[in-house]
Amino acid sequence: MVRRKAGELIEMKLAIASGKGGTGKTTVATNLAWIAGCNGRHVAYLDCDVEEPNGHLFLNPEITSSVPVGRLHPVVDEDKCTHCGQCGEICQYSAIVCIGEKILTYPELCHSCGGCRRVCHPGAITEVSRERGRLETGAAGRIQFIRGLLNIGEAMSTPLIRQVKAAAPGADLVIIDSPPGTSCPVIESVRGADLVLLVTEPTPFGLNDLKLAVEMVRAMKLALGVVINRDGSGDGRIRDYCCVQDIEVLAAIPDDRRVAEAYSRGILACDSVPEFRARIEGLWARLCDLPPASFMTLPQEARQ
Amino acid sequence: MSDLVTIQPPNGQPVKELVVISGKGGTGKTSIVASFAALAQGAVLADCDVDAADLHLVVDPHILRREPFAGGKRARILPDQCAACGQCKEVCRFDAVFLDGPGNDVVQKTFRIDPLACEGCGVCASLCPMEAIEFGPVLNGEWFISETRFGPMVHAKLGIAAENSGKLVSTVRTNARRIAEERGFALALIDGSPGIGCPVIASITGAHLVLVITEPTLSSLHDLERVAALTRHFGIPTLVCVNKWDINPQICEQIEDWVRDRGLVLAGRVRYDPAVTEAQIHGKTVIEYQQDGCAADIRSVWANVEARLEISACALRNGV
Q1: How close is the nearest chain B Cα to the Cα of A117, in Å?
Q2: A22 in contact with chain B, both atoms CB, cutoff 8 A
Q3: How close does chain A come to B224, measured CA to CA in Å?
Q4: ipTM of this predicted structure
Q5: Which one, A68, A199, A207, A238, has least CB within 10 Å?
Q6: Which of A 183-212 lie inside 8 A of B, CB atoms?
Q7: Touching check for A166 and chain B: CB below 8 Å?
Q8: How many contacts does A have with B, using Cβ atoms within 8 A?
Q9: How close is the nearest chain A Cα to the Cα of B93, in Å?
Q10: For domain B72-138, is the CATH number 3.30.70.20?
Q11: What average pLDDT does the structure give for chain A?
């Protein structure tokens, strides 16, 4: 929760999401983390885009710990198995299948619900952990850095995202850099956030995906605000939409080739483009000044 | 399917699937797929980026058929029957159960399942001593068969905050292939999603060719490395195209060197061109919008991709 003392932001979980990919989530997340750190805040940056994490390229953290993280999947003791088929019946993911005298398991399909072990009366099933990715922690100056790295070929990223979030240290500002899209990995990333910042661009694709993201955040009953990136490169459709929907535009970052070039080289644009830095500082100031209630931009009918 | 003409595939040739992915989002994948559609003039389009689908915004599909999609199940506690014993909460591995449901004659509060957190495993429902948990399929979205000015299209809309996008991707892909077979198209052109997880795996497994659209940024190179490892893992031939290459020519060369070292094939470069956004605003592909600029680059990338697909132009035009 956001707690305040004398109008100051003390503790906040801020998720940065977008719907459409490549709109500037990581740019906003890393630069905002840096500016908040420069303002003396304890910041934790969580890279929840575990499929394609990029935050480390900009923050250059010193990684102090890198541990494999696993998830449970069933192993069947053939000697104890009576081939009753209960395990295959409860499994909703076809991760354990009983065909006649044969039990087959597919760990990559397993959601680790533990159902098969619970229903196995002869006690032939044990759950063992299998590595699915890595959890890395470190620091970039004042910023605590945590990221997850999903193993290649692993389909499910949500459990690792959960583990990244669970590893977050206490901080004034927790920034959650979420993956693109609007489905399970994004929902897992933004769940529990005090405010979801949706980064978009003023194009038809940007607006279409922003609408999907807004609907998702509203379905989760979370507060949201919008950041328009590459402002000026398209048209006014994002502003019109935000106005109609009563959504706060917390920052507009002008389209600037220098920002794109800084990004391409993996450097923080706020270090090299003063105008960009000013916008991020403005965003930080807005986040500190806004009363929590004004973050709520749910449509009228959903407000009670 | 009375609205669709059934024709044998040309010369019994199997339908080839080209999947365009990117690793990192926002590299221009969808704009390039739409341009390919305009150039191929005889491919079935499939938008497999189901949780942020944009292809329809430029190809303007006319929906002929819509189908509900039920991809998973959800548990729901019936407050009247719940005795608040808490077994469901104990067995749930997904933190989806909360003691904040309405009360009944026996207890003041009942348990409630957060549908957004529920993974649909059904363990709680099967173990509830009161049989107070309903467990059944939920609608997660819709998928469509449409006609566009470039040919048929299969696309989908994932429900708000829904999951199971991998299954919806498979549904879209299977139907695109089926329509291609039925109507004699040699190619299914698939717009994939960013990342390397479940929807991407569902869109590339068993495909003939993957084209990765990347951009000259270190982030994009990092993501390309991971997505190329994924296509190698599944043994799919992979081409790489550097979009907006002139944003940073030096990193563009770095990426191209990496691609060659890896034994992957370069499909070409596409320059940065504001016409892409202008065309998008006009609801057109950049190929229809202009002749020169990046449209010329995309034509030459398409020629390289077409050669790799080994589909003769004649076979492509056999499509109805």
Answers
A1: 11
A2: yes
A3: 9
A4: 0.89
A5: A68
A6: 183-187, 191, 203-205, 208-209, 212
A7: no
A8: 184
A9: 6
A10: yes
A11: 91
User: How far, in Å, are A39, A253, A284, B283 from residue B191 at the CA level?
Assistant: 43, 29, 37, 17
pTM beyond 0.95: the answer is no
- Looking at residue B161, what is its pLDDT? 75
- Spell out the alpha helix ranges (H) of B146-237: 165-183, 198-204, 218-233
HSE-up of residue B76 (Cα within 13 Å, Cβ side): 9
pLDDT of residue B2: 36
Is it the case that residue A249 has pLDDT exceeding 70?
Answer: yes
A139: buried, middle or exposed (CB in 10 Å: 19+, 13-18, 0-12)?
middle
CATH architecture of A70-131: 2-Layer Sandwich (3.30)
Q: How far apart are the first and last CA of chain A?
A: 19
pLDDT in tens, A166-185: 999 989 999 999 999 998 89
Q: Are A125 and A90 in contact (CB under 8 A)?
A: no
Among all residues of chain A, which has the CA nearest to that of B284?
A: A204
Which residues partner with B7 through β-bridges?
A: none
Domain ranges of chain B: 10-68+141-317, 72-138
Q: Which of A19, A57, A114 sits opposite B218 (nearest CB)?
A: A57
State the average pLDDT over residues B117-139.
94
Residues of chain B contacting residue A156, judged by C-beta atoms under 8 Å apart: 197-198
Question: Which pLDDT score is estimated for A2?
Answer: 53
Residue A113 at interface with chain B, using a CB cutoff of 8 Å? yes
Q: Which helix (H) or strand (E) holds A231?
A: strand A224-231
Distance, CA of A168 to chain centre: 13
Q: What residues does each domain of chain A span?
A: 3-41+172-302, 70-131
CATH classification (class only), B10-68+141-317: alpha beta
Give B5→chain A minimum CA distance, Å. Answer: 32
